[in-house]
Amino acid sequence: MSAKSQHNNILLAIAGFVGVVIIVAIIGFLVLDRDPDIIQGQVEVSEYRVSSKVPGRILELRVKEGDFVKVGDTLAILDAPEVRAKMEQAQSAQSAAAAMELKAQNGARKEQIQGAFSVLQQAKAGFEIAEKSYNRVQRLYDEGVMSAQKRDEAYANYKAMEAQMKAAQSQYDMAVNGARMEDKLAAAAQVGRAKGAVNEVNSYIHETVQIAQMEGEVSDIYPKVGELVGTGSPIMSISLMQDMWGTFNVREDQLNGMQVGTEFTAFVPAFNKDVKMKVYYLKDQGSYAVWKATKANGQYDLKTFEVKARPVEKLEGLRPGMSLIIKK
């Protein structure tokens, strides 16, 4: 065999091998399915935190993590001795204000009224004597047997006793009528202010007993019994199990018509089931950290959107944190 024939045989063998590789690659590309794009999300749940308006020490925890609570259930009891002390102060102030109002409404005591009446009678008696004396002196003056000096002195005494009687009458009337209207209104306002202070402290006392505002599951408890908690410090978190949704981070080229109001199917690995979900929230995340750069190959940047969707029908056992898979 010549060298030229051997060379041709080698080239044919190489070409055949390359052809077989190409054919196998084409067949594999056409026959084998490509992995689908997978979008993974997770189940989220609404929560609210239980906290107190007043600082105190945790005296008792009536629930534990995982318990399901209903509206009105007692969750925790706090000890706040400062609030009790303020209640005693507020109640004392209310009692004092009520006594002042009663005094203003009732007026003077009977003894004071009787004393003012006696002074008035004494002033009237003095006035009557002064009046008779003046009239007698005036007649004598008119007859010419009394000097003008004596007449003027009797007249001055008469007027002085008249003024004294009017002053006694005013004191007596004031004792009978009691306090002025302005004083009564001021006393009533003080009572209202004291009642408001008592109501305010009562609201603080109610804060020492924390009750559930909505039904749900106790997801976290933060302090231990005996620990101090400050104003507004969270005591526990309640998960509202009736308000669950799924959240996904979806690149915009994978949205594929997904918009608010549309429905899609998600796979729940925990139950090996599909669940139909409806989109209610769609918003770009607005951060360059979630962009996919494609300009290097002449295309464009792809942003990531946050998609939230709720199950169309309730799936028993669905829990926060479970995975949700969307296959595109």
Keywords:
328 residues; alpha+beta; four-stranded antiparallel beta sheet; 5 helices; 12 strands; 45% helix
How would you explain this protein's 3D organization?
The structure is a single chain. This protein has 328 residues and is α+β, with helices and mostly antiparallel strands. Helix content is 45%, strand content 27%.
Helix-strand layout with pairing:
Layout: H1 3-31, E1 38-51, E2 56-61, E3 68-69, E4 74-79, H2 81-106, H3 110-143, H4 148-177, H5 181-207, E5 209-211, E6 216-221, E7 228-229, E8 234-251, E9 263-268, E10 273-284, E11 304-311, E12 323-327
Helix pairs in contact: 2-5, 3-4
Strand content: 25-35%
Percent helix = 40-55%
Mean pLDDT: 81
Number of strands: 12
Give me the strand/helix succession: HEEEEHHHHEEEEEEEE
How would a crystallographer describe the biggest sheet? 8 strands, antiparallel
Q: For the terminal residues, how far apart are their CA atoms? A: 60 Å
Count of DSSP-assigned helices: 5
Structural class: alpha+beta
Low-confidence stretches: none
Radius of gyration: 49 Å
User: What is the overall shape?
Assistant: rod-shaped
